[in-house]
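Our platform keeps sequence and structure together, in a single record for each protein. Such a record has a labelled line for the sequence and another for the backbone structure tokens. Nothing more is needed to write down the fold, since each code stands for a local backbone conformation. For reference, a complete record is included directly beneath this paragraph:
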Amino acid sequence: MKRESLEHYLKLRYPITVYPEAEGGYVAMIKDLPGCITQGETPDKIMANIEEARQLWIETVYEHGDEIPLPSDEFA
């Protein structure tokens, strides 16, 4: 089976879950990508951080030849 390109995976849109932290700031995670989690002080910062974490997660998994999960259908 032919593997999709890295660019294909980087273009996929994954649902993001954001939680406020009790002591301030936010935590964001992509449940479809195990371990893809980050934190930030502002809404803008958390979104920039989770985008960077998503890209790094996909690039690392792709380079190791492991399977990259497709996004869940939580957008529906």
